[in-house]
Design a protein that fits this description.
With 85 residues, this protein is mostly helical. Helix content is 64%, strand content 0%. It contains four helices and no strands.
């Protein structure tokens, strides 16, 4: 199975985890998924100062700037596997 197929399978598996991950882990999953599927962040930060979730997501994704899509995909796959076990 190639990396893209593994990544897509991990994304599907992440929706059926037996327990909900912590908020920190959810942010990690989100940022790795976005970096793996889109690459470096390509949006502006949230303009609403009370959008704490949007700001956290933006900052988590921004922190991965420069990481290759392939590296992010592999880290995402590994994290989902860890959460499944």
């Amino acid at each position: 199975m190639d990396l893209q197929a593994q990544f897509e399978q991990a994304a599907a598996d992440s929706k059926t985890l037996s327990s909900k991950p912590s908020n920190e882990t959810l942010l990690q999953l989100y940022s790795l998924y976005k970096q793996g599927s889109t690459g470096d962040i390509n949006t502006d930060p949230p303009s609403n100062p009370f959008d704490f979730v949007g700001k956290a997501k933006y900052e988590a994704w921004t922190a991965l700037k420069g990481k290759s899509k392939e590296e992010a995909m592999q880290e995402y796959i590994d994290l989902v596997k860890k959460l499944k076990s």
